[in-house]
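Margin note: ligand = pyridoxal-5'-phosphate.
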Amino acid sequence: MTEKTFQQIKDSIEKATLDAQRPPNSVRLLAVSKKKSYKDIEKLYAQGQREFGENYLQESLDKITYFNERQSGQDIIWHFIGPIQSNKTRAIAENFTWVHSIDRLKIAQRLNDQRPANLPPLQVCLQVNIDHEQSKSGVLPQDAHHLAQAIKQLPKLNLRGIMVIPQKTAETSDGFIKTYELFSQLKKYIKINSQSSSDNFDTLSMGMSGDFPEAIRYGATIIRLGTLLFGNRD
Ligand SMILES: *Cc1c(COP(=O)(O)O)cnc(C)c1O
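Resulting structure:
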């Protein structure tokens, strides 16, 4: 099997973006490196990739430490995208730039309180359980407005948008359409309810290796690719 090259994958992201009549370079690629080695990350880094997503805290801290101790790699932007237990929030607040997987206020409050004063606010997304699946984490769509409003009050968090993992069905686009509608509603709601004019609720994190062109068609601004970039995980 011939693996696609990094450049081919970036080309297909750009093609999907233009096919959707969206501006060039309006979709960011997050390389999901969970269960992958330093070497795998270095390979993409050497080709210009700077944003990496991790799911498992201890594994990610090992990687972050490794790259912080090297000359190259200190400018990696680390995104935490896995489920968050409350005893893990401190390390996340101290080591990540982005968190995509906030699903309850308690976690948001802890991240806010534990974000070091010398660092800029943590960039965060709400994870929404868009298909109401029992097995999945995420705030239910009907509770998202309330949680978003509460997070807006936390000074060390910058609420940037929502993250979803839609159900895989014959009609994946259903989940993407529902998500885009919710994203647009939340954006309006936050604009109306916020005092500051400098809102940047601009991030729709959706789309993975199997469905990213379609996610882009329905408005994704960050796609999260693992398998396609790195091959299968063990
Ligand atoms: C693992 C993972 C991905 C990447 O999935 P692939 O299908 O390998 O591209 C994206 N998002 C989340 C939240 C993940 O856990």
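The chain is about 40% helix and 15% strand.
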